């Protein structure tokens, strides 16, 4: 599959290479945008890095990781996995899609999403799904413009004080 594509002058979307690992782990913090205030920042950063490591480990028939590079610097990435939906249908799940703060609004996210969509179609997967933080307003607008629709909503009720949650 040819995935290398120009986004803007000096920008390319390409498959993950092992030497990208540290750059992706640094960008994993961008996945915490829009987290609920009762969630631990440190816990979310650690979880985001684990998600990225898991996606990298599943590269192959199970999944793919695409990297956005601008003038030789990694400025974004997207991870997609084959998964069985609760209905028994196979679907493509975007586990992570992150763009560096300074690279937002330049078409990087759209280009990563296009590479993920091509991969999903080549795999014969009819659905592309993802989760994001409810307060990630910029991300929610981006996904809505990209054709995503709400399917479910997760609700949380905080039963403990901030001190109990470790948020003091």
Can you describe what's shown?
Strand 4 and strand 5 form a beta hairpin. The protein starts with a strand and ends with a helix. By secondary structure, it is α+β, with helices and mostly antiparallel strands. It is built from five helices and six strands; from the N terminus they run ββααβββαβαα.
Mean pLDDT comes to 91
Please provide the count of β strands: 6
User: What's the N-to-C terminus distance?
Assistant: 49 Å
Helix content: 25-40%
**N-to-C series of helices and strands:** EEHHEEEHEHH
Strand order of the largest sheet: 1-2-3-4-5-6
Task: Please report which band the strand proportion falls in: under 5%, 5-15%, 15-25%, 25-35%, 35-45% or over 45%.
Answer: 15-25%
- Please count the helical segments: 5
- Major sheet: size, sense and barrel closure? 6 strands, mixed
Whole-angstrom Rg: 16 Å
Write the layout of secondary structure elements.
Layout: E1 5-6, E2 11-15, H1 21-27, H2 41-57, E3 63-70, E4 73-84, E5 90-99, H3 108-122, E6 128-130, H4 137-145, H5 162-165
Parallel strand pairs: 5-6
Antiparallel strand pairs: 1-2, 2-3, 3-4, 4-5
Helix pairs in contact: 1-2
Give me a quick take on this structure.
By secondary structure, the protein is an alpha+beta fold. The chain has five helices and six strands. The chain has a six-stranded mixed beta sheet, sandwiched between helices.
